Prior knowledge:
The protein is of the alpha/beta class. The protein folds into two domains: 1-80 and 172-261, Rossmann fold, CATH 3.40.50.300; 94-169, no CATH class. It has ten helices and ten strands. The longest helix is centred in the middle third of the chain and has 17 residues, at 124-140. Bound molecules: adenosine-5'-diphosphate and magnesium ion (MG).
Amino acid sequence: MEEILVVQKLTKVFGGVVACKDLSFCVKQGEIKGLIGPNGAGKTTAFNLITGVIPPTSGSILFMGEELSGMKPHVIVKRGIVRTFQNIRLFQNLTVLENVIIALDQQNSNYSVGASILRLPGMKREERRVREAAMDYLRVMNLEQRADQTSSSLPYGLQRKLEIARALASQPKLLLLDEPAAGMNPEESRELARLIQKIRDDYHLSIILIDHHMDVIMDLCDSIAVINFGEKIAEGTPEEIQRNPDVLQAYLGEGYKRAKS
Length: 261
Ligand SMILES: Nc1ncnc2c1ncn2[C@@H]1O[C@H](COP(=O)(O)OP(=O)(O)O)[C@@H](O)[C@H]1O
Ligand SMILES: [Mg+2]
């Protein structure tokens, strides 16, 4: 399998805090890569670095062979890396459908919200086309029944799914999901896991998944990197990670080992 993302010796220092330290890992084409570790380990910082929100102190990020560090976030989105946020970021006063329409518009010049808002004669067909495209992404995430609801009125679990629908509308090659199952009950997180697998297959995505739901992580991921205090302490298959003594000590804990055996 070909590597779509190669992160090499990535370091980020905030004042005195070393949030990422010499972090290296790869994501293969089509793979779901787990990124796990305790709160404050540097997981979200890794996403911020990959998406160009913050510049690295040092290190390199190669995406499809091209160096990303120094690129602006909107350029990186155009290259095909799209993320969701640990703290949900939606246009809260807009409807579910409108949130996806805006994501479509930001990414694709062949969709124009301007036209649909101005309601120019002859733009009806264009407006229908944009709405249909947005509805398709809602259907993928099982949100089509909610299309006309204000997004702030959705339960958190559904807002997280809407974030993923918006991300898909940006047509990513690599999708970064930051705690997509946070706040979900076991049934919701199982459904989400199925959806993540489905979009990976249907859209030929590569995915990096940060989450604390170990059932979701262990079920979905082809490979997992574990970070602690900004440093990678282990990497391997779910089976390898679950019996790695360093991971059990730093993150999963003895309770996890007992529950598994
Ligand atoms: N913008 C920032 N400015 C200063 N410190 C930050 C910033 N972002 C993250 N940090 C610090 O970096 C460390 C890693 O944070 P984060 O990447 O959010 O961890 P995680 O997502 O693994 O919980 C924490 O100590 C956090 O306080
Ligand atoms: Mg985080």
